[in-house]
Request: fold
Amino acid sequence: MQTISLERTRQTYQLPDGRILGFAEYGDPQGKPIFYFHGWPSSRIEFAGLNGDEIARQLHLRVLAVDRPGFGLSSYQPHHQFTDWPADVSQLADHLGFERFAVLGYSASSPYTLACAHALPDRLTVVGVISGVAQPFNGPGASDSMPTIMLWTSARIHPRLTWLLFNMMKRTITDGPRDRLPASAKQAMMAEADFAFIKEHPAVMAANMDGGAEAIRQGGLGPAEAGALYWKPWGFRLEDIQIKVHVWHGEADLNAPFAAHGKNLAQKLPNVQVKFYPGEGHISLIHRYLKTILETLIPS
Reply:
């Protein structure tokens, strides 16, 4: 496995309004550009835990994994909305010299990814969503059986409740042993399919903890406030996105329940290509199929 330099994973860019965007760079520095958007609560280093650097090198892709506002190295932004994200991405792309680029979002980053698809169709070469959410969590079946629903519900009541939970969890996430697995899927807050996967691949749990620890390095208020956004209208309609979107979703996913999210994306996006995976969960899918997914997204 390639060693990733600290310098490549701790890059920053100052936006015109003075805020900082933190990002990490993976893969081939001369490769075709893809922006990767992390889950919740996670950060730019999530992609490293997927063996993403090595895969991106093999495919000659230059992957930029960006911290959203208040996550990791990126400045906190009060009143941030999903629809604010495309402008930040566009400005970072300008800074890096990318006229056109691909975007790939995992899990809770799908509203941000799809906001880019809605706002930046002329700049995007291709769009991908892995295990993404398709509707606000108060929609039909949208939060049924979600193992992490407590964190999302507390954010809906008031973001500072989730911020308090993050602060209570911070020591466990940052200093907890990386080689000790939870006793059950329920304790791990994941689907049985995902728990079975991490039992076979315990390093995955450590990588998830590292991504979460980095997400709340500033205290967790940014991620907590972001959690409240998932209960509200997104600011755009899926039906209005005209650019083609590739969707990958596990049928055993509980973090983004398949019927309410995977199927919903397939039904509502006008120009969509879907791949559903029987027996795969939220975590197992991206780890098993990232190379296949990235191959699909290689711009022509």
